Amino acid sequence: MKKTGVVAVALFFTIATAAQAQAKQAAPGSNPLIRDKFTADPAPLVVGDTLYLYVGHDEAQRDEMFNMREWLVYSTKDMKTWTDHGPIMNVTDFKWAKKDAWASQVIERNGKFWFYAAVEHDASHPGKAIAVAVSDTPTGPFVDAKGSALITNEMTPKGPHSWEDIDPTVFTDDDGTTWIAWGNRNCYIAKLSANMIDIDGPIREITPPHFEEGPWLHKRGSLYYLTYASLDRTTHRDERVSYSTAPSIQGPWTYRGTLTGSGKYSFTIHPGIAEFNGKSYLFLHNATLAIGDQNGAIGRRAVTVEYLHYNADGTMKPVVQTDAGVSAPARP
Ligand code: FUB
């Protein structure tokens, strides 16, 4: 074969292999879930037959650390095909906030959808803060529900840095009380008032071992779970997911160890848990996605999902992060 023929054949096989790899990657339900935008900090919410997934939009350029200006929402009915509903809010919709559309969670209460999110407050309350917005539908439009921050940096004891008050998780207990937990390095919990826009009572610190950020509260059976991004700086460079359980939302919390390893190529990881159509899911993020000439990075992440399995005693089985995600049926 002539040299040009060899090159043509080699090129054909290279393209065919790349296309096959891409087709394989794109199997519905495989990871990452969203491939046309960088997304982070997944927060699922089940409403009827639909799972909504709220994420932050990562727009970091080159070696920028984070550039997050808006939150997006996607929905699915089968965990395989996702509908993009676009942005639900921009950080500038909170007039008192400066920047940083960081981690969020939405909860349904009294026929409305309440959105809690971490942002950077303006100079009147320096540091990170927690915002609350409301909508009549899960896909928005959401509007600032309070006109000021729900939680500011001064409301918690002075932490090691100014981004201590981030990453809200919200959970309504069987008695109808909604709780909010949040934090970075220190983890706090408080009751929300029935109006959903005020803190009712004291803020308590519940920091579990190796807590870094990204707490997620949920309950299964009679057990309460506090799942979070953990970092044991003596042994690891990147965050993993760990969790604690308790017989009541008030504790006492028992540390149960790590649930996952690190997200591939990512310093951060961020858990979000949901039961949907009889199965349990753990949403995470990693930094494996490349879009055009932009590779994954600390500020260019991609949300993923894995099946979550429980042991008979309620502990969660370790989760291995895969490319296949939920494209294949869960093991029995
Ligand atoms: O996405 C910005 C911040 O990085 C989040 O608030 C943290 O949980 C970490 O994922």
Secondary structure: elements and pairs:
Layout: H1 3-25, E1 38-47, E2 50-58, E3 68-76, E4 83-90, E5 97-99, E6 104-109, E7 112-121, E8 128-135, E9 143-144, E10 169-172, E11 178-184, E12 186-192, E13 199-205, E14 211-220, E15 223-230, E16 240-246, E17 254-260, E18 272-276, E19 279-286, E20 302-307
Antiparallel strand pairs: 1-2, 2-3, 3-4, 5-7, 6-7, 7-8, 8-9, 10-11, 11-12, 12-13, 14-15, 15-16, 16-17, 18-19, 19-20
Beta-L-arabinofuranose (FUB) binds at residues 40-41, 56, 66, 68, 102-103, 118, 166-167, 213-214, 268, 270.
GO molecular function: hydrolase activity, hydrolyzing O-glycosyl compounds
InterPro entries: Glyco_hydro_43 (IPR006710), Glyco_hydro_beta-prop_sf (IPR023296), Glycosyl_Hydrlase_43_Enz (IPR052176)
Family: Belongs to the glycosyl hydrolase 43 family.
Task: Walk me through what this model shows.
There is one protein chain. The protein is mainly beta. The protein has a single domain, classed as Tachylectin-2, Chain A. The chain has one helix and 20 strands. Strands 5, 6, 7, 8 and 9 form a five-stranded antiparallel sheet that branches. Strands 1-2-3-4 form a four-stranded antiparallel sheet, with no helix packed on it. Strand 18 and strand 19 form a beta hairpin. The chain is globular. The termini are far apart. The N terminus is likely disordered. The site of beta-L-arabinofuranose (FUB) has 14 residues, from strand 1 and strand 14. InterPro entries: Glyco_hydro_43, Glyco_hydro_beta-prop_sf, Glycosyl_Hydrlase_43_Enz.
